[in-house]
């Protein structure tokens, strides 16, 4: 059973099978949020997604970056990402209509950021999630039997 169902802008329905929330800056050891720190954080999240679901494609939704008027330290200006980092596994019907719909599903792992820890669902998900090009990003895989 899916955690939620999203309807993409293309009209395709995708099911959210697994979701992990983490605080974007909960493990920031020292310093301040800035581009180098954020880029490292994003790269780590993408690697974690690749390790969590080997063989499933991973897509990063580029996060919004804000630049508050604060003192810039040695690493450059303060740059803030949304507060919640999300790693979700989505699935839908097979991309190839010739495949057995019981034996195959299309899958995609998505990394995105959002302001609050809320479950995306229906047409009320982040716009970048609804705009996923499923046909270009997802891959068909045999379901576990």
Beta-strand segment tally: 6
Report the sheet-strand fraction: 25-35%
* Global morphology: elongated
Terminal CA distance reads 16 Å
Low-confidence stretches: none
Structural Rg: 17 Å
Name the average pLDDT: 90
The biggest beta sheet is recorded as: 6 strands, mixed
Number of helices: 3
Order of helices and strands: EEHEEEHHE
Q: Which structural category do the helix and sheet elements fall into?
A: alpha+beta
Query: What proportion of the residues is helical, as a percent range?
Result: 10-25%
Give the SSE map.
Elements lengths: L3 E4 L5 E11 L11 H18 L5 E3 L23 E10 L10 E11 L12 H4 L3 H4 L1 E4 L3
Parallel strand pairs: 3-5
Antiparallel strand pairs: 1-2, 2-4, 4-5, 5-6
Describe the overall structure.
With 145 residues, the protein is of the alpha+beta class. The chain has helices at 35-52, 127-130, 134-137, and strands spanning 4-7, 13-23, 58-60, 84-93, 104-114, 139-142.
């Amino acid at each position: 059973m899916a955690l939620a169902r999203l309807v993409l802008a293309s009209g395709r329905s995708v099911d959210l099978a697994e979701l992990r929330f983490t605080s974007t800056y909960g493990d920031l050891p020292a310093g301040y949020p800035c581009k180098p720190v954020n880029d490292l954080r994003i790269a780590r999240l993408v690697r974690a997604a690749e390790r969590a679901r080997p063989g499933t494609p991973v897509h990063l939704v580029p996060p919004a970056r804000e630049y508050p008027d604060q003192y810039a330290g040695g690493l450059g200006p303060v740059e803030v990402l949304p507060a919640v980092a999300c790693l979700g596994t989505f699935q839908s019907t097979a991309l190839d209509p010739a495949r057995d719909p019981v034996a195959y599903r299309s899958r995609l792992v998505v990394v995105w950021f959002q302001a609050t820890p809320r479950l995306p669902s229906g047409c009320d998900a982040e716009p970048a999630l609804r705009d996923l090009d499923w046909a270009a990003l997802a891959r068909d895989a045999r379901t576990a039997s």
